[in-house]
Specification:
Length: 201
């Protein structure tokens, strides 16, 4: 059995209420880094410090973008401001990461596809496999493999922030239009029983 007060609360743990302040978070990070440094594993310690720096940069950029978007149109309504935040790739990525984005996966997929330069739409998302099928809604070039791969990659890049539930993108083959049969006028028929003039004796 462990000693202490018997509360089961680990040293340095955040308050039981679940509230996390900047001071508490900073102290916890320092304690974790100190424990790693004390383990003598320099590689792990350096990796942890790099991870903290990356996360700080990510969250800092997200907060900066949110402030920018909110201040861009001071007179905007709350609805318009929220729409701007939800439609921004960086801010939306943070909201999705923490389960705070109010849109469901279908709407977030549509938001991502709206950002693409290619005319595509969702043809169905399989939540069990993470596969999103797309179809072209207009002309997008020659339809060759390179074009298809470019469209799929652009979709994956946009979906990474808006809908990380999508793990694979498949662009469906465009339906081929049936060939048109050209029906022209038949050869002139002669009065003598329908034979052509060339066949007449």
């Amino acid at each position: 059995m462990s000693g202490g007060t018997g509360t089961g609360v680990a040293p340095g743990a955040p308050p039981a209420s679940g509230a996390m302040t900047a001071e508490t978070a900073g102290r916890l990070v320092e304690e974790i880094l100190d424990r790693l440094a004390g383990s003598g594993d320099r590689t792990a310690c350096e990796a942890a410090e790099e991870l903290v720096r990356v996360l700080m940069d990510f969250y800092g950029a997200g907060l900066a973008r949110a402030v920018e978007l909110i201040g861009r149109h001071p007179g905007a309504t709350a609805r318009d401001t929220l729409a701007a935040l939800l439609g921004d790739e960086l801010v939306a990525g943070l909201l999705v990461l923490h389960g705070l984005h109010p849109d469901d996966v279908s709407r977030r997929v549509d938001r991502a596809l709206d950002r693409l330069p290619h005319p595509v739409e969702s043809a169905g998302f399989d939540a069990a496999t993470g596969v999103l099928r797309l179809r072209l809604t207009g002309s997008a070039g020659c339809g060759c493999a390179g074009t298809r791969e470019g469209i799929e990659q652009a979709a994956r890049d946009a979906l990474a922030c808006f809908a990380p539930e999508v793990t694979a993108v498949v662009l469906q083959e465009a339906a081929r239009e049936p060939a048109l049969l050209q029906i022209g006028a038949g050869p002139p028929r002669a009065a003598d029983g329908g034979r052509s003039p060339a066949a007449a004796p």
